[in-house]
Amino acid sequence: MHLDEIFFKIMIYLLAAVISVPIAKKVGLGSVLGYLIAGIIIGPFVLELVGDDGEGVMHFAEFGVVIMLFIVGLELHPSMLWRMKRLVLGLGGMQIGITALIFALITAFFWLNTAQAITTGLILALSSTAIVLQTLSEKGLLQSRGGRHSFSVLLMQDISVVPIFAIVALLANQVVVDSGDSSELDAVTSSGWMQLLIIIGAVGAIIIGGRYVAHYIFKFIAETRLRELFTATALLLVIGIAGFMDVVGLSPALGTFLAGVVLANSEYRYELEDNLEPFKGLLLGVFFISVGASINFDLLFSHWQLIIVILSIVVTVKLLVLFALGKLFKLSASHNMLFTFSLAQAGEFGFVLISFATQNAIYDAFTSGVLLIVVALSMLITPLLFIVNEHLIQPRLLKSESRDNDAVEDNGHPVIIAGFGRLGQVLGRFLNVNRINSTIIDNNPHNIEYLKKFGYKVYYGDITRKDMLEAAGAAHAKVLVIAMSERLQIDKLVELAQKHYPNLQLIVRAVDVAHDLALQNSGVKAHRQATFDSAIQLGSDALTALGVSKHQSYRSALTFKHLDKRFMKNLQQRYSKDDPHFVLETKQFSEHLENILLLQQKHPYQELDCAWDTNSLIDEAKESKKKDEMPMKQGEE
Fold it and tell me: Which residues contact 310 (CB under 8 A, 6 or more apart)?
């Protein structure tokens, strides 16, 4: 291939990625599917911009998978795995084992031999880490119970890729033995012990080198302060280990994964991740494009009935297994359906494993071609599965799981707390130790059940409704504390309380600065940003850690709180992001506050006469700054 032809191929691959991936993400398909679609478009079936050399590109791009496994190893701390052992090892291990066994039995009964059946079961047991994590993150579902269970299974699947590679390699050796004559069998047997010793030596070399040698190499490179040299060293490490493992007859992915685990506690771990991440993303993108380009559409159209049947079996079996496991691990119906539909596809590692199995004579061209199409199509329909769950199943489940508002016992408590999440719980404990009884309302049934274990009496209900607010005792209560996290709910409750219970004092959580100013304009007297005091306290601790005395750190925090409160009150009428006076006064306040805190640092134990007279304090700070600058100006003259 000529140089100009190589450049043309590179341009086609990059152009396809640049055009298709943003469009795919825009319509909710995700980047991986964007790469696959780009490969289909530029492949032999559509535009024919890339030809039969796509397999060679795929082998090159598989290095992205090797880097991915190295990074996965870097992120696997033993302590983290131990904390998640029930979900990772229990749920994840059961999902892989049960699903692989079912698929192996099905394929062995209908179609494939033993080695092919086991390999197929292991391949189809995996799901797409890239698609699932990205989709859950985009939808804000990763921290839900269903999302956390999905992540745990994906983590176990990523860990299991390396043992699966080893199993496939053993099955490949068995295929060679079964197909050979007695002389070949004797040769394999005689070399088995030697191969085992080589493998043990290679793994030992990686572990020893990673624990005792790599630190000094990275330290020497880091002292040069040349980022590009550290990047070159990281690439050299991965390429070197991959090549070394290939020479001794092991999977390069096994060696790089093991090296990543060994280096997981290294102080250079984050530098390695940062430097390798762009290469991983780019090469994986090229890999997925080459997969899309390599799909045999002639095979798809000539055997579409068989492929549709296999695809249906794959998705159905995974849905049933995942649903049963979610039930076993006591997921609620809505979270269980999210968990089930998230992982019902095959994964991107399936492409690598199918290619690996084909190279090692486990699969013939027809079998590998069918499986590649099935894996790709299962990933392509994943967005449809999410849509079905989100728009058809979840609304019905949420409706069936919904419950009526609790009947609130009117005990005449002086305080009503609306929202009992993290902020509400701390506030409730504070009032409780001061012997102030509260009526607590929350709209999260799972949170309410959990808090019951700690002795809290929390009522379920939507307090933004007038009947619920009235039942909570708003007519005779003195204070309504609004500690909810959603701004729309907060504003709705504020308006409801002000309209029907004007004598009720409102203490409101502000979501951000803009909300704080809006609450002031609505007439709420007691309001506070949820993270404001915590941020000031952490800032004070940071000053102390930097050598500032505790007295001065405390005094600076107190001054900042007071002046910020005065400043926010002054800006109340001018609040507008587009108001030039608002922006100008905000900048001036920051400058004045800096001058005041500098003045306090000069006189740490002197009480300022105008301590809380903001304008006088600003004038005094300006005069002090001018005096400091005068000697410097005279010296310059």
Answer: 370, 374
d(CA 490, CA 496): 10
Distance CA 601, CA 553 (A): 10
Q: Characterize the bridge pairing of strands 438-442 and 415-418.
A: parallel
The CA radius of gyration of the chain, in Å to the nearest whole number, is: 32
Contact between 276 and 67 under an 8 Å Cβ cutoff? The reply is: yes
Handedness of CA 492, 493, 497, 498 (dihedral sign): negative
Give the Cα separation of 131 and 380 in Å (integer): 10
Give, for 459, the enclosing helix (H) or strand (E): strand 458-460
Q: How many residues does the chain have?
A: 637
Amino acid at 621: A
Determine whether 355 is exposed, middle or buried from the number of CB atoms within 10 Å of its CB (0-12, 13-18, 19+).
buried
Q: How do residues 379-400 score in pLDDT, each as one tens digit?
A: 888 888 988 888 888 888 766 5
Report the candidate in 449, 346, 350 with the shortest Cα–Cα distance to residue 406: 449
Rounded to whole angstroms, the Cα distance separating 23 from 171 reads 41
A 10 A CB-CB count for 276 gives 21
Query: Which DSSP string do the residues of 499-532 spell out, in sequence order?
Result: HH-TTSEEEEEESSHHHHHHHHHTT-SEEEETTH
Cα–Cα distance, 595 to 150 (Å, whole number): 52
Q: What are the helix (H) ranges across 248-332? A: 252-262, 269-294, 297-302, 304-328
Q: Rounded distance, CA 240 to CA 324, Å? A: 44
Distance, CA of 465 to CA of 450 (rounded, Å): 24
Amino acid letter, 245: M
Q: Which residue has the tokens 């080459």?
A: 290
**H or E stretch covering 243:** helix 227-247
Could you give the domains of the chain?
Answer: 3-395 (1.20.1530.20), 406-530 (3.40.50.720)
pLDDT in tens, 140-159: 787 788 888 998 898 888 77
Report, as an integer, the average pLDDT of 106-123: 88
For residue 564, the number of C-alpha atoms closer than 13 Å in the C-beta half-sphere is: 16
CA angle, residues 377, 380, 381, in degrees to nearest 5: 90
Here the tokens at position 317 are 């079996």
The whole-angstrom separation of Cα 590 and Cα 465 is 41
Closest CA to 54 of 11, 9, 2, 7: 9
Q: Give the pTM.
A: 0.60
DSSP label at 607? Answer: P
State residue 52's pLDDT score: 55
